[in-house]
Design goal:
The protein contains 23 helices and 2 strands. By secondary structure, the chain is mostly helical. Strands 1-2 form a two-stranded antiparallel sheet. It has a domain at 78-319. Helix 6 runs antiparallel to helix 14 (305-311) and helix 17 (356-373) packs antiparallel against helix 23 (442-456).
Length: 492
């Protein structure tokens, strides 16, 4: 029987058995997400039973399988703690006026002569401030689409600019769930992951801004109605005390990142400083309201629908969607990894790969394929992340390279797939089909291309015989890597 019975000899999984587990998961996700329009959590849970059956076939019993689940979940606990702290921070920063201040000054950038570039920048600022690409698209994105309509600007180009800015912020914000999830899957800490992604992301972002600047030349008129922007700005001023002082908590968090302060203490400093400034500067911000917003999020009631939708977010409880998804996914990932099923697939894919750049290519391709066939952004980070972790260790490549690879492919290309949860969300919110805005979502497909080019130039990967090497200490203990820190080397 599955739950009891005498021990049988355990064996390695075959490629066919491993593909059965993955295929069953894909089938469950496709039926749940695409056919029935469900969230990925329950289909992912049901899909996990495929690898449970294979594990039993390999000679494992329920006690072993349950242990594999727990071991998988343990790998994401540091990331879950960070997500919880981030949820608290967002709620408190909203109540304290920190996030409204960032949005207010971001709107000041918007001018008719540089509309597309300004759209990218505004969505970038909003997404960095909130850590949410979906929240940015559903709020600032909607407002900017309305402004584009009034200015007679191209709606597909505007949508591409919105998506580019939103996913830049989502990729680089320490408040983002995907930015925290990718390093957790790879086996490194989030701050190391962010620092490593700065170079390739900055290159693709700069190219994106240049393209949108060129697209905007000669296509805008002066003296257009900017009433939508003014309405948002006026409502922010009417409901919050907006001052440059409110940037102080943001600066504190950024300084903590620069000084390599661990994520939880660094974010906690931002929470404390934001709470103090909020109590001093905002008339409705009290200790009781901060506790409530930290738990359940900020409930914005200005009477201005767009602004209320933008600022009603944050809180510990609002992070439970991402946390529960990570836990369920790691039930599957833990079993697949510990029974050797992921290893069998990875061995087949990488059997002829000899160079770290080739490994990065295989990783990114797998993440993109996962977005297409599994139709969910989180899974495109989790499955390839666990599948290739041991391969990076075997080739003595620092796990931050794996984190960069999956974040620069799975996280940003999900919105380019029409049936992916991200593509479905953005197209429904902005009213523009994925295939219409896809050619203009420059950041989302430039980022993986830039990372690949830099990988083959040996800028974002390393091997034992590379040059310009430095040591990066991994802060997450085991993290599926060698305990010998001399193997943890990476190009900078």
């Amino acid at each position: 029987m599955l739950f009891k019975g005498k021990e049988t000899e355990k064996r390695q999984a075959t490629l066919g058995e491993s593909l059965f587990s993955l295929g069953f998961l894909v089938l469950c996700l496709a039926l749940g997400i695409i056919v029935f329009g469900a969230d990925p959590h329950i289909p992912m849970f049901i899909g996990s039973f495929g690898c449970v059956l294979v594990a039993y076939r390999l000679g494992y019993r329920w006690g072993d399988i349950e242990g594999f689940m727990m071991k998988g979940i343990q790998k994401v606990i540091p990331s879950l703690i960070i997500l919880i702290v981030i949820g608290i921070l967002i709620g408190i920063w909203l109540d304290a006026g920190v996030v409204p201040t960032m949005i207010y000054y971001g709107l000041k950038v918007l001018k008719p002569s540089i509309f597309y570039v300004a759209t990218v920048i505004i969505c970038s600022i909003t997404s960095v401030a909130t850590g949410s690409s979906w929240g940015t698209v559903g709020t600032m994105g909607v407002a900017l689409m309305g402004i584009a309509l009034g200015l007679d600007m191209s709606l597909p180009i505007t949508a591409g600019a919105i998506v580019s800015g939103a996913y830049f912020g989502d990729k680089m914000s320490p408040l983002s769930d995907t930015t925290n999830l990718a390093p957790a899957m790879a086996g490194c800490d989030v701050m190391t992951g962010i620092r490593f992604m700065i170079l390739p992301t900055s290159i693709s972002y700069a190219i994106t801004l240049a393209i949108f600047f060129v697209l905007g030349l000669g296509n805008v008129k002066t003296g257009e109605d900017m009433s939508s922007v003014k309405a948002i700005s006026d409502s922010l001023v009417a409901n919050f005390n907006i001052t440059p002082v409110h940037f102080l908590p943001v600066i504190i968090v950024l300084v903590a990142v620069a000084l390599k302060v661990p994520a939880v203490p660094g974010i906690t400093l931002g929470i404390i400083s934001g709470a103090i400034i909020g109590i001093v500067t905002q008339k409705d911000c009290t200790f009781a309201s901060l506790l409530s917003c930290g738990m359940n999020g900020y409930d914005c009631e200005t009477g201005f629908e767009t602004l209320d939708k933008l600022l009603t977010t944050g809180g510990l409880m609002n992070m439970m969607y991402s946390c529960s998804m990570a836990i369920i996914a790691m039930i599957f990932g833990g079993i697949m990894e510990e029974t050797g099923q992921l290893q069998a697939v990875a061995n087949f894919i990488t059997r002829k790969i000899k160079k770290p750049a080739g490994l990065v290519t295989a990783t990114m391709a797998s993440s993109v394929v996962a977005n297409v066939v599994m139709a969910d952004q989180y899974i495109s980070l989790i499955v390839p992340g666990r599948m290739y972790a041991s391969k990076y260790k075997d080739m003595k490549v620092h796990p931050v390279c794996l984190a960069n690879a999956i974040a620069s492919s799975g996280a940003v290309t999900s919105v380019l797939v029409p049936w992916n949860t991200c593509g479905l969300y953005v197209s429904s919110i902005l009213g523009i089909g994925v295939m219409k805005y896809l050619p203009y979502a420059f950041f989302n497909y430039l980022t993986p291309l830039v990372v690949l080019v830099l990988a083959y130039l040996k800028v974002t990967v390393t091997d034992e015989h590379g040059t310009r090497l430095c040591n990066i200490k991994n802060n997450d203990g085991d993290n599926n890597g060698s305990n010998d820190q001399s193997d943890r080397r990476v190009y900078v």
